[in-house]
C-alpha cells in the first residue's frame, strides 16, 4: 500500500473514532481464537467474521482514499486556483468587517449569521439548506466555497464563517458533534452528524450554531442550546454530543459563557439594532465582489460536484 494512502487512511480512521471500534473487534476476535486454542470452547466462525469485517472496511476505505488522491492529482491546478480565489474573497470580507468596531466576537457572530441567512455570502443572493449525498468533497479547506453556490449544509457554512473569523484573528475551531434532539446524551457518540463553531475570547468559550442560528452553552463536555421557554416555564433545549475529544480539549481551560433563552433573544435584538447600519453598508458593497463570487462558485462545483439524494 502506498505510504500516502496509508497515512490518509490512518488519519481518517483516527478523526472519526473508528480506530477504537476496529481495535475492539480485533481484540475480541483474537481473544476468541485464543480461547479456542486453549479450551476448545470458542466460536471460530465468530472470530473469522470479525476479522473479515475489519478487512472489508479497510479495503473499502483504501479504494475511497485512492480515488480521492487520484482526483486531487488530476485537478491540482484548478484546486490551487480556487484556493487563491477563495483566500482573496475571505480576505476582502475580513477587511470589510475590520472597518467596523464590534464590542465582542459574539456581536460579530450574530451579524455574520444574519448576513449568512439572508444570502450575503451567496452568488445567487439567497441561501438554501440543501441536503445532498456526499459525493466528492475531497477538499476540507475549500468547503466554505460551496456557500457561495447558494446551496449548503452545516459543514459548509461553518467552514466559511470559521475561515473569516480566523482571518480576523479570533480563536475558533469547528466542533464536530452528534445532534441528539431534546434528550441529554446518555452514551458516547463517535460519528458526527452536525458541525458548529467554538469560539474563545478573553478566557471564555461559547459555541455558535450557524445552521440553526443560535448561541450554545458548553456543559459537561456536551453542547446545549436553549431554544425557548415553554408555556409551563420550562426550558426547551437542543443537545449536541461532542464526537471528537481533541477538539474540545483545546479550550478545556476556559470558562463557558452561558446565556439563557430570554437573555439571548434580548441580546440578539439589541445587536441587530445596534449594527443595522453596518449590515446595510455591507450588503451595498457586495456588488463589488459579485464577479469573484460567481467565479469561485462555478469552479468549486467542478472540484466538488453535487449529487442530489
Topology:
Layout: H1 3-16, H2 18-39, H3 44-74, H4 76-98, H5 105-117, E1 128-129, E2 132-133, E3 151-152, H6 154-167, E4 172-181, E5 194-201, E6 204-209, E7 214-219, E8 222-229, E9 235-242, H7 245-249, E10 255-256, H8 261-274, H9 276-285, H10 290-303, E11 307-308
Parallel strand pairs: 1-3, 6-10
Antiparallel strand pairs: 2-11, 4-5, 4-9, 5-6, 6-7, 7-8, 8-9
Can you put this structure into words, describing what you see?
- The radius of gyration is 23 Å and the shape is globular.
- Strand 6 and strand 7 (214-219) form a beta hairpin.
- It has 309 residues and is an alpha+beta fold.
- It has a 6-stranded antiparallel β-barrel with strand order 4-5-6-7-8-9. The protein has a two-stranded parallel sheet with strand order 1-3. A two-stranded antiparallel ribbon has the order 2-11.
- Helix 4 (76-98) crosses helix 6 (154-167).
- It has helices spanning 3-16, 18-39, 44-74, 76-98, 105-117, 154-167, 245-249, 261-274, 276-285, 290-303; strands at residues 128-129, 132-133, 151-152, 172-181, 194-201, 204-209, 214-219, 222-229, 235-242, 255-256, 307-308.
- The model has no long low-confidence stretch (mean pLDDT 79).
- It has 2 domains: 3-73; 102-308, no CATH class.
The gist of it:
With 309 residues, this protein is of the alpha+beta class.
For the structure shown, list the relevant keywords.
2 domains, 11 strands, alpha+beta, 10 helices, two-stranded parallel ribbon, 6-stranded antiparallel β-barrel
Amino acid at each position: 500500500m502506498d505510504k500516502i494512502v496509508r497515512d490518509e487512511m490512518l488519519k481518517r480512521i483516527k478523526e472519526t473514532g473508528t480506530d477504537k471500534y476496529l481495535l475492539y473487534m480485533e481484540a475480541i476476535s483474537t481473544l476468541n481464537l485464543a480461547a479456542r486454542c486453549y479450551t476448545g470452547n470458542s466460536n471460530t466462525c465468530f472470530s473469522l467474521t470479525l476479522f473479515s469485517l475489519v478487512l472489508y472496511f479497510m479495503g473499502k476505505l483504501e479504494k475511497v482514499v485512492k480515488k480521492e488522491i487520484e482526483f486531487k492529482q488530476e485537478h491540482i491546478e484548478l484546486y490551487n486556483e480556487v484556493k487563491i480565489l477563495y483566500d482573496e474573497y475571505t480576505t476582502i470580507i475580513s477587511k470589510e468587517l475590520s472597518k467596523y468596531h464590534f464590542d465582542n466576537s459574539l456581536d460579530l457572530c450574530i451579524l455574520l449569521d444574519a448576513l449568512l441567512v439572508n444570502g450575503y455570502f451567496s452568488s445567487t443572493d439567497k441561501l438554501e439548506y440543501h441536503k445532498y449525498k456526499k459525493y466528492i468533497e475531497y477538499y476540507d479547506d475549500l468547503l466554505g466555497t460551496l456557500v457561495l453556490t447558494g446551496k449548503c449544509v452545516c459543514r459548509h457554512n461553518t467552514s466559511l464563517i470559521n475561515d473569516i473569523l480566523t482571518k480576523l484573528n479570533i480563536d475558533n475551531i469547528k466542533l464536530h458533534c452528534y445532534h441528539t434532539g431534546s434528550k441529554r446524551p446518555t452514551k458516547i457518540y463517535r460519528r458526527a452528524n452536525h458541525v458548529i463553531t467554538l469560539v474563545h475570547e478573553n478566557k471564555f468559550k461559547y459555541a455558535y450554531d450557524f445552521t440553526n442560528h443560535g448561541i450554545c452553552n458548553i456543559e459537561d463536555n456536551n453542547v446545549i442550546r436553549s431554544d425557548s421557554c415553554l408555556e409551563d416555564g420550562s426550558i426547551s433545549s437542543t443537545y449536541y454530543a461532542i464526537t471528537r475529544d481533541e477538539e474540545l480539549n483545546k479550550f478545556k481551560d476556559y470558562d463557558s459563557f452561558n446565556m439563557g433563552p430570554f437573555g439571548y433573544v434580548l441580546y440578539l435584538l439589541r445587536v441587530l439594532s445596534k449594527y443595522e447600519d453596518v449590515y446595510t453598508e455591507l450588503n451595498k458593497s457586495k456588488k463589488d465582489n459579485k464577479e469573484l463570487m460567481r467565479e469561485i462558485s462555478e469552479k468549486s462545483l467542478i472540484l466538488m460536484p453535487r449529487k442530489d439524494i
